[in-house]
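Extended Data, panel c. Modelled sequence:
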Amino acid sequence: MTTQNEVAVNGGGKQYGTKLTVLGEAAIAGNILEGTKLDVVEIAAGDGGGGWYEPSAEQTALVGEVWRGEIAAYTLNPLNPKMVDIKGVIPSSDGGFTIRELGVFDRAGTLIGVCNTPDMEKARPDSGAGGKLDVIMHLIVTDANALNIVVKPSLDTVSLEDVTGLLGGKQDKLEGWPGQVPVFNENGDLEAQDFSGSAVFAFTAEDWGPPASWVPEEPAEGEEPEAYDGSLGYEIAIPAEAHRRKNGDFGFHVFHQVDGKYITNTWAALGTGADYDGEAGTVILSSSDPYPGKILFVG
């Protein structure tokens, strides 16, 4: 059973969710009593020690931390005012690991919240398939006003959602994204950022297929070909003329179609990877479960 400070999602028989740690809950409660705010300054990713595990409120560290960085952006979840969606961007220069857990830390290095995630591959930068990877953690707290989430954005990591948040949500369409969009830099100054190279690719659940690594067994005479069981996940190959990327160094944001609307920060979107195939010039979209949605290539 989940508590008020937990998020739980069932996927493929495994439970995925976020928990506020005991130390995190105590730190937030202390700041509420003192009328101050708790500085949340870092987000980290880990490999879970090599496999799936269920996070514990008693944790003081990730099981197998592989990356840590500053927070790129955050939003209050529109469906739950107590849920804060915290985003990190793993740069293209890092990689060669599988992400299975995320955590956020305060200025003292205390683990405030922890979550497990579906497997997310981050390719090595020299693999030809390396690229930036957005990770988002959903943190439920008693009072979101007790948190001071310190953001250190850089313009090369700004996504469509981040920009619309800065502009008060006025730019709400994926299509027709203008070439020059006003955004604020980290000094609070308004300036123009060129998004003329951005592209949007829409897909359906039926567009997902077996990965290139899957080789079906040759059927015996008179038998039907082997059906793919989904055990290796699913992929979509996006051609160069659709994504318009020149190499594997690109930003992207995935939108999951739910009840006819495209939304982000869902578990389906969070578990999606986008790798660049330098030889074929395609972007390979990967996920453990097929779903309809759109991917926005930024820059």
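The chain is about 10% helix and 40% strand. This feature is highlighted in the accompanying rendering.
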